[in-house]
Amino acid sequence: MQKKYLMTPGPTPVPAEVLLTQAAPIIHHRTPEFSAAFKACIEGLKYVFQTEGDVLLFASSGTGVMEAAIANSFCAGDMAIVCRNGKFGDRMKGLCEAYGVGVLDLKYEWTSVVDPADVARTLKDNPGVRGVIVTQSETSSGVLNDVEAIGAIVAGYPDCVLIVDSITGIGAVPCKTDEWGLDVVMTGSQKGLMLPPGLAATTVSAKAWRAYERSTLPKYYFDWMKYKKNVEKDTTPFTPAVSLVLGLNVSLGMIRDEGLDNVIARHSRLAEATRRGCEALGMKLFAPPEGRGSAVTPVWVPDGIDGKQIVKIMKNKYGVTIAGGQDAYEGRIFRVGHLGYFGEFDIITTLAALEMTLAELGYAFERGAGIVAAESVFMGE
Ligand SMILES: *Cc1c(COP(=O)(O)O)cnc(C)c1O
Questions:
Q1: Whose Cα sits closest to atom 9 in ligand 1?
Q2: What is the pLDDT of residues 267-281, one digit of tens each?
């Protein structure tokens, strides 16, 4: 027997009470029991998104709501600014291209933060831009983009919507949908919501509904309006992922019980301990200090060490699954996820497995230094 630890930024671990709820016999979705749970989920999602506006829930992975954001907001030939500094920003660009939306490409290094001044300038230079698209928490790089500052800029353009991929932002970092003027904010179940994969949610502001009214891009399953009309009746247009919705009701209850601010503070503490732990082992953090999120900690693999080996040994020998680097950073960075159902000792365990793995690979460092650094964060030293 080997105890397993899932330390990736999606899928993330699921609490036992959520799993048990999902194991109950299936109920029909056109029933008062399901409607009550569904209604509570929409209310709970409004709480985590911090919005009084519409929240729509889909049976899909996160990419489904990203596609929905494009299909429901634009017409073919519209121009949108895509801010991208990682794999998920690239995906938004690909989605725009698939739908014939013109891309004003704000491309950055994966180790850089999106500069809101670039968004302001591009909006000014290109009258008629219909959307700004940004990833709040770039899971591929750990970079946190300043969507509050971008929201303040886009608010000055009444015909331009701000679309935010907060799929690993929600529940990990502050994301104040209404207060910051974010028109479309998205998340997925297998991230901060502590559920298995299979659900995705989106907010839609009044401004985004105006964009929807004008939009002529094709849509059917992901047509926002179908979901809105059904949410008003506490149901869904198509068969929902019943068990996941019942589980979501439980996980949202856990978030409410802890309190969103406390959830975010816990993530920030876990991220800080992971960072300090890795730095104490002599490794360098990938994301820049001015823009680090709390969902995932990417770390440069030390010179002369094979990053893929780190991931492999940690998983096979110690049962600790972390993520490797993606695209150009495959083998060059590793990523420790701490998003959702995580506590202090998950971090201690991971740092211990990391130390044992690095020692085996012949990396020179002071044994125990990573754990001590993390303990100091948790002890408030
Ligand atoms: C996980 C994730 C997504 C969605 O990916 P799916 O595999 O479709 O669920 C989108 N954006 C970010 C930033 C993510 O971390």
A1: 62
A2: 999 999 999 999 999
Q: Provide the token pair at 283.
A: 């490794």
Asked whether residue 209 falls in the same domain as residue 342, the answer is: no
Distance CA 271, CA 294 (A): 5
Domain match, 164 and 215 both: yes
Q: What is the per-residue pLDDT across 130-168, written as a single tens digit (0 to 9) for each?
A: 999 999 999 999 999 999 999 999 999 999 999 999 999
Full-model pTM: 0.98
Whether the Cβ atoms of residue 226 and residue 237 lie closer than 8 Å to each other: yes
Q: Which one of 257, 273, 305 terminates a domain? A: 257
165 lines ligand 1 (CB under 6 A): yes
Q: Are 66 and 195 contained in the same domain?
A: yes
Ligand 1 centroid from CA 346, angstroms:
23
* Residue from 12, 58, 61, 195 whose mutation best tests the ligand 1 pocket (most atoms within 8 A of CB): 61
Secondary structure tally for the chain: helices H, strands E: 13, 14
- Per the structure, the complete domain to which residue 208 belongs is given by 16-257
- Overall domain count for the chain: 2
* Angle, alpha carbons 151-39-191 (nearest 5°): 55
Q: What would the pLDDT profile of 47-85 be if each residue is shown by its tens digit?
A: 999 999 999 999 999 999 999 999 999 999 999 999 999
